[in-house]
Write a structure and sequence with these properties.
There is one protein chain. This protein is an alpha/beta fold and 428 residues long. The protein is built from 14 helices and 12 strands. The longest helix is centred in the last third of the chain and has 23 residues.
């Protein structure tokens, strides 16, 4: 086979794997643009609402429109670009283009991912994986570490998918405190499950190798939930790459799902959540209306005597946050919580220089009621409760290339080690 033909065959192979995706899936966000708009005042935020009404549309906000973020990221169809930019100029608002064509970024992410070829049955930690592949990884990991790992069912999804949790527990003669960490509560945030999986792998493979890991696993059990929202995550692979919510039915035909991080019974559906079933921040019909959330909350409630830390991983923005989300007021334990955040982000930044901010949720990113972290702290009494926004800060947003999975995983693993050691010192 000559070199020219070989190159053509490789290209056709990659294109073929990409076009195994539904064509509607690939074209859905073609010619959509992500802008960043400077929102330094409440008036700037109000202007965005005015523009939505004038255009008769709802922007797809990639981060919440508020003055904390300074730069609000929003997506619109490119056919509205000229009118939108003219409106920005007339209102004297600063803006720039972050992603010119979202559809092309989706294709690039998928092409890059498809180029990563796994050897035999080996699981490649530098690749984004489907729900079935993640499920197989959990079972394979249990088989590889039978003395340390058990996989059990914690809930089911609206569509009936099994939600499994991996428990990592080095045998001990005493009951150990536990740390829970999860990913994929918002479906489109693919780097979140990938990072959670990578960290679980690193803890297991470095036991008895890395003294810090050995100390941590001798002191704590871990509960690991890679994909909190399996229906939504599966949907991002098959129908809509940027889907966020669950997939339950609502009272409005054509509008599906609730925001699983607004569905917890903690200041339910107050500020920072929507009662509109078509909104990305729809809180749901009632607290714990989403079966996924209800099942996990029940498990945490039954085990809150041992779970001392809860971490909920998201993307993007590079933030390590603590309660409260529903109000800017800080809880009584804020100082010891935030000191844990500081330990984590300091360790994280030493690896590649990645900078994270830390603080309470409502004062750092936006007000969000009915969140997991507020509930685990207030109701389940888990003091060391954290919400983490992983890479990046908007260059790729939810479409982080797969070559950033391992760097993200490594630096976050360093943060997790530092946090676990900090918590261990506080417990003594």
């Amino acid at each position: 086979m000559n070199l020219k033909f070989l190159k053509l065959a490789l290209i056709l192979g990659i294109v073929g794997s990409i076009y195994s995706f539904d064509q509607e899936y690939l074209s859905k966000y073609r010619h959509h643009t992500v802008y960043q708009v400077l929102t330094e005042s409440e008036k700037d935020v109000e202007f965005l609402t005015v523009i939505e009404k004038k255009f008769g549309i709802k922007f797809d906000y990639w981060n919440e429109a508020n003055t904390l973020n300074k730069w609000t990221h929003l997506m619109i169809k490119s056919e509205l670009n000229s009118d939108f930019e003219e409106m920005m100029r007339s209102l004297k608002m600063s803006y720039s283009v972050l992603i010119e064509d979202v559809g092309s970024y989706i294709e690039k992410q998928l092409i890059s991912n498809s180029k990563i070829k796994e050897a035999g049955d080996d699981f490649d930690y530098g690749k984004y994986h489907t729900l079935d592949e993640i499920s197989k990884w959990m079972n394979d990991t249990q088989a590889a570490f039978p003395k340390f790992v058990s996989v059990f069912n914690v809930s089911r999804s609206y569509e009936g998918k099994v939600i499994n949790v991996m428990k990592i527990s080095v045998p001990s003669s005493v009951k150990k405190p536990a740390i829970w960490f999860d990913g994929g509560i918002h479906a489109r945030e693919w780097i979140s499950p990938a990072t959670v999986i990578y960290m679980a792998h690193m803890f297991l493979s470095n036991y008895s190798v890395d003294p810090d890991v050995t100390k941590i696993l001798d002191s704590f059990d871990f509960y690991v939930l890679p994909v909190f929202n399996p229906d939504g995550y599966d949907y991002t692979w098959k129908k809509d790459r940027l889907w966020r919510k669950t997939r339950s039915k609502t009272k409005i035909p054509g509008c599906y799902g609730a925001d699983p991080n607004r569905n917890w019974d903690e200041h339910f559906c107050e500020n920072g959540a929507s009662k509109d079933p078509c909104s990305d921040t729809y809180c749901g019909m009632s607290p714990f209306s989403e079966i996924e959330i209800r099942g996990v909350a029940n498990f945490i409630s039954k085990n809150n005597d041992s779970i001392v830390s809860y971490l909920n991983f998201h993307s993007y923005s590079q933030l390590w946050m603590t309660p409260w989300g529903y109000t800017t007021k800080k809880p009584r334990d804020f100082e010891i919580q935030d000191n844990g955040s500081a330990a984590a982000v300091n360790a994280l930044s030493k690896l590649y220089g990645t900078k994270y901010q830390h603080g309470n949720i409502a004062s750092t990113i936006y007000v969000a009621s009915g969140s997991s972290v507020d509930w685990t702290y207030d109701t389940a009494k888990i003091v060391y409760s954290y919400a983490v926004e992983l890479r990046d800060q908007g260059k790729y947003g939810f479409l982080l290339p797969p070559d950033q999975i391992i760097p993200t995983g490594l630096e976050t693993f360093e943060a997790m080690k530092a946090l676990a050691i900090y918590i261990l010192k506080q417990l003594k």
